[in-house]
Write a structure and sequence with these properties.
Elements: H1 8-15, H2 18-22, E1 29-31, E2 34-37, E3 49-52, E4 57-60, E5 66-67, H3 69-77, H4 81-91, H5 112-132, H6 136-148, H7 153-159, E6 162-164, H8 170-177, H9 182-187, E7 207-213, E8 219-226, E9 241-243, E10 256-257, H10 259-262, E11 271-274, H11 278-286, E12 292-295, H12 302-310, E13 315-320, H13 324-340, E14 344-348, H14 355-362, H15 364-372, E15 375-376, H16 377-385, H17 392-408, H18 412-426, H19 430-443, H20 471-481, H21 485-492, H22 503-518, H23 523-527, H24 533-543, H25 552-584, H26 589-606
Parallel strand pairs: 11-12, 11-13, 13-14
Antiparallel strand pairs: 1-2, 2-3, 3-4, 4-5, 6-7, 7-8, 8-9, 10-12, 14-15
Helix pairs in contact: 3-4, 11-14, 12-13, 14-15, 17-18, 20-22, 20-25, 21-22, 22-24, 25-26
Length: 621
Amino acid sequence: MPRLAEGFVTELKDRIDLHDLVSRYVQLKKSGSSWVGLSPFNKEKTPSFYVHPLKGFFNCFSSGEKGDGITFVQKMENLDFYEAIEYLSREFSIPLRFQEGSSTSEPLGQSMRKELFSLQEIAKAWFSEQMKAEGTESEVARKYWLQERKFNHEVADSFGVGYAPTDRFALGRHLTSKGIVDKLMAKSGLFYDKKNQSDWVSIFCGRLMIPIREKLGRICGFTGRKLSVTPEWGEKKAPKYVNSPETPIFHKGQILFNLDLANKEINESKDFLLVEGQLDSIRCYTEGFKTTVAPQGTAFKESQAELMRKSNPRRVVCLLDGDQAGQKAALSYVPIFLKTGLDARFATLPEGADPDQIVVNQGKEALEKIIEEGEPMVSYVCGKILSKKPSPQEKIKVTDFFFPTFAEMESLVIRDSYLNELADSLIVPAQALKADFQKFNRNRKPAYQQKTTHNPTQKVENKTTERLTTAEDDLLYCLLHDVRLGSSLSQIIDPSWLDTKVTAGRILAKILAEILADGPLESSEMEELLEADSERFVFQNLLFQEPEEESDTTIMDTANHCIAALFAKNSRKSEKTLLSSLQELNHNPSSTTELRAQLKEIRSCRKNPPKIFETELDPKL
């Protein structure tokens, strides 16, 4: 595996304009020498997200997140460190540099995820070839695509649509011939468990294959549409659609079909168009509705709404079927949009029709008219629940629908706006409705009394929750804010003193060992020693933590306090071990003499822990 050239990561960060990078995700306004905007990590209405281009870091006060451009891309695009490096290298046209003699024949960071993305591309290319191949099966797939669905070859090529043959072993043989190892085949989501079989059995047989891309445009899975040649499942009919199962790169709740293309068009003055099917999305996109997306799977999730919110659209327009199932789905979407902070409208399609059919049979103007007639969320829900002359019970049913979600909204201004809108729709005084809501809010069960499926043994993924008051954390903070301490610390600190269960302890152990071997390091050189993302997040959290107006002496005093704490902890540990040994040898005085002398020495030294003196520090460069 190739290794990046020494100093390349620092060079990459120096050459990237952090404002240019962040402004692709967040609308920023000038604030002194910095820029400010709404947090991309939390829902908020008051800006608390600051970008400092000259210093090269961002700081989000609402979520506690902070870091540099690489960290920002990792968090926004759900990438590992090396994937983020590749992404920034490509986006800012900065060629990757590798260590001399390091082979570049393999892509950088050949992690399991990266290899799985490559495998999906190989499979997509093969499915495309099968679509164009000679033979009855391929002809059936082409006929369905061209004649029944009325798409053309160019659209198939653009979206990578292909065909999976009925031969259930064909794909496995092809990937094996390409050198794909069993470990990747098993994780790809393309095959059933191999178990005792000698060959890999494909999940997709005799189906039109539609690649699913994540938000960066990488293929992460497939949907297979049933055709006339699709093998049936015994007495049960084969399902109309078969989707990739969950894999390390495919999580359907985190995917919106066509988001990679729609994101290039969306902005705060445009709407996302949310449709139900992938072919609907393809049709709408090719006919000029460039911000069309579709959920992956039957249920629309809050995580998918969050993906759209991060793109900062004006609103979302939902195009849902006019049948009972479509209306039920629409009602389930409303609380999700309200919680996520997205404004949404609902445009109902004629029963039995979908966007694809409307555009093909009536033209794009017919679909545009349906979109224009979309209703706001509150009036849409009221129209579905209330009769022409609604009874008080029906109105209560509407408030029962909205109140629980309103109670969870963070913005009081937006909540009040929705309450006023709801009062107008119900034709009741706003004051009375708000009084009812306040009563509902008071009577709600506290969060700790509500039922929860939380597993107390489950680890919470929150990189900012680790205590910042351990001696290791504080000592690392001191070192990052005055690198002159490094040489003295490497001489004083014994590696056994550090608690490597704490992330900061592991980071310190690496840095001090390197300084002891090769001399002083700058903070950028220290960061290049880190391997795990968890270490980078802690490192940057401390590096970019704004120090108070402190003198150098204060930082050095803090460092000495940490040294004393680590020394004392190690001393007590040694004392405990000696006392245990003395108890065991209590009846053998001659054997305990040396141990008692050691114990006396430990207790005496504890009063005078090692420390750094200002005269030891090299002048600042």
